[in-house]
Design goal:
Shape: globular
Number of strands: 7
Number of helices: 7
Distance between the termini: 29 Å
Radius of gyration: 18 Å
């Protein structure tokens, strides 16, 4: 399973659309490899997923960003329903099961799968615009840097929030960045800014880190 998050930054049309809804991030996509059948009634599923998505999309920043040419429908719920039909239903998920897995913010065994960035020539830094995390078989770690033709992998990588106040220097190069932007880092530094209900307090984080060390 893979969760793809769009950073709310003005690098492209998707980032700018995300900025309409959030100062930090948007859930851009979810997908899973492999196929399985589902024989549930399609019309009933569409009605159910629309209703379920309408209740949760703002809580997990799951907005319509115009993916796959979809219409911008004020954030919900045409895109979410379409994603269920092409990503969830074909894998055998019921509407409720799909909502549960898409909205899963537990760290679990999620690891960084890919980083997308663009090079800012004024700041001489790589601005990250998208992060993808997945649960990979046998803990296989794979990083794919998109936009490599315009990205300088030996220059610093940053994450910039749309509120104008936060700039996270996550690495002086790609290698350092990959080690830094774990799903735990993403939750604590990006998600928590907008949805603290998903995250532990700073004291809890420090205590847990002490236990690890």
């Amino acid at each position: 399973m893979y969760w793809t998050y769009q950073i709310a930054e003005a690098g492209d049309i998707t980032g700018r659309e995300c900025q309409r809804h959030s100062d930090y991030y948007c859930l851009w996509d979810w997908y899973q490899s492999g196929l399985s059948s589902n024989t549930n009634d399609q019309d009933a599923d569409m009605e159910t997923i629309w209703d379920l998505a309408s209740k949760i999309y703002k809580k997990i920043n799951w907005f319509n960003l115009g993916q796959f040419g979809g219409d911008f429908d004020n954030g919900c719920c045409g895109w979410q329903s379409k994603l269920y039909m092409i990503r969830g239903r074909m894998h055998g998920y019921s509407p409720q099961e799909f909502i549960d897995v898409v909205s899963d913010m537990d760290e679990g065994n999620k690891v960084l799968a890919s980083v997308s960035a663009r090079f800012d020539h004024i700041g001489c830094v790589n601005v990250i615009d998208r992060l993808e995390y997945g649960t990979l078989v046998h803990n296989v770690f794979f990083t794919q840097l998109a936009n490599t033709s315009s990205t300088h992998m030996d220059r610093p990588f940053v994450v910039i929030s749309n509120d104008g106040g936060n700039l996270h220097l996550v690495g002086l190069n790609l290698q350092q960045t990959v080690r830094t932007v774990t799903f735990r880092w993403f939750k604590q530094n990006i998600v928590c800014e907008e949805h603290p209900e998903f995250c532990e307090t700073r004291l809890e984080a420090e205590m847990n880190q002490m236990r690890i060390n």
